[in-house]
From TrEMBL:
Native source organism of the sequence: Notechis scutatus
CDD domains, sorted: IgC1_MHC_I_alpha3
Name of the protein this chain belongs to: Major histocompatibility complex class I-related gene protein-like isoform X1
Family: Belongs to the MHC class I family.
The keyword Lipoprotein appears for this protein: no
Lineage per the UniProt record: Eukaryota, Metazoa, Chordata, Craniata, Vertebrata
Residues annotated as transmembrane: 303-327
Length: 347
């Protein structure tokens, strides 16, 4: 793995969460000591966790990372050029930020990293969320509270910046407007581009069922229904009892993207083993010609398990005995061996 990818995995202040229905967010990174494979400045844009835009200080060009992002050129032919120009200016501001924060910590040498991440989420219940925060060397530095139009200093060295930025009310209002209005509009626009290209593509979910081998203290057992490799993201999955949706003692994970653009999801249920035959995992998805219903599997016979254990134990005993003999014989021998947020202020 390249150095900068490893750094991101360790240091990024992730603003988006898997609980949102759709999300758009941007990460900006400046480093004090660039190297081969690690530009001094780079930024990436994500839609639902998928990389869609990229820019760095070496190429100095904002580029699309998915084919459907080129649709934006039809509405705005200067989108990529304007975005590149904006990021060139942003790069200068954030590099100055890094020098200033190093000075505050009296860290004039060595490798240091300055980050900012911001974005918005459009949730399944139509509520929205916007966020913006800064970090230094992987630690939170400042977080924007858009409800109070103020910045929260998470480090003593951030107090000076907090006071300066809090005094600029107009800038805070602009940030709030972007996070709650403009960002959501861009999010919807990018979703429309993606849907336009991906509409013909559907992948049905692959369903697997697992059961906990141990029995709970109260006699209940847990079953997990896993759904993998499906597209589009929207999926309707539930547990049913006697054909009716059953919510009691059920738990749901978040719909999470896979590396290939598909998604996976899980839901579990705790039941009385005596009523196992009454439950089904019910799934509806655009990739399915008809809904899936999978019954809970009955456990294998204990007799078969006991026989298998005996056979394994005998084989293992023989192997161990052989190893001991081998070591005994060789003991002596072994001893010898642009849609982006452009309103940045300096620290």
């Amino acid at each position: 793995m390249e150095l900068w990818r490893a750094l991101l995995a360790l240091l990024f202040l992730l603003g988006c969460s898997g609980s949102s229905h759709h999300s758009l967010h941007y990460d900006y990174v400046v480093v004090s000591e660039p190297s081969e494979g690690l530009p001094q400045f780079f930024t990436m844009g994500y839609l639902d966790g998928q990389l869609i835009t990229y820019y760095d200080s070496q190429k100095k060009e904002k580029i699309p990372k998915v084919s459907w992002m080129k649709e934006v050129e039809k509405e705005d032919p200067k989108y990529w050029k304007d975005g590149s120009d904006i990021l060139k200016a942003t790069e200068q501001v954030l590099q100055e930020d890094l020098r200033n924060v190093q000075h505050r910590y009296k860290q004039y040498r060595g490798f240091h990293i300055w980050q900012t991440t911001y974005g918005c989420e459009l949730r399944g219940n139509r509520s929205i969320r916007g966020y913006s925060q800064y970090g230094y060397d992987g630690r939170s530095f400042l977080i924007f509270n858009k409800d109070t139009l103020s910045w929260v200093a998470l480090d003593p060295q951030a107090q000076i910046t907090k006071m300066n930025w809090d005094a600029n009310l107009r800038w805070s209002q602009r940030n709030k407007f972007y996070l709650e209005e403009e960002c959501i509009e861009w999010l919807k626009k990018y979703l429309s581009y993606r849907r336009k290209e991906m509409l013909p593509w559907t992948e049905p979910p692959v369903m697997t069922m697992t059961r906990r081998t141990e029995v709970e203290d109260d006699g209940m057992e847990t079953h997990v229904c896993r759904l993998d490799g499906f597209y589009p993201r929207e999926i309707d999955a539930s547990w049913t009892r006697d054909g009716e949706v059953w919510l009691q003692d059920t738990f749901h994970g978040s719909v999470v993207p896979n590396a290939d653009g598909t998604y996976h999801y899980w839901l579990s249920i705790r039941i009385d083993p005596k009523e196992r035959c009454r439950y089904r995992c019910h799934v509806e998805h655009d990739g399915l010609q008809e809904p899936l219903d999978m019954a809970l599997k009955e456990p294998k016979s204990n007799l078969g398990i006991i026989i298998n254990c005996i056979v394994v134990a005998l084989v293992l005993g023989c192997v161990i005995a052989g190893i001991l003999v081998f070591f005994k014989k060789h003991q002596d021998g072994y001893k010898a061996a642009t849609s982006e947020w452009v309103f940045f202020l300096p620290l």
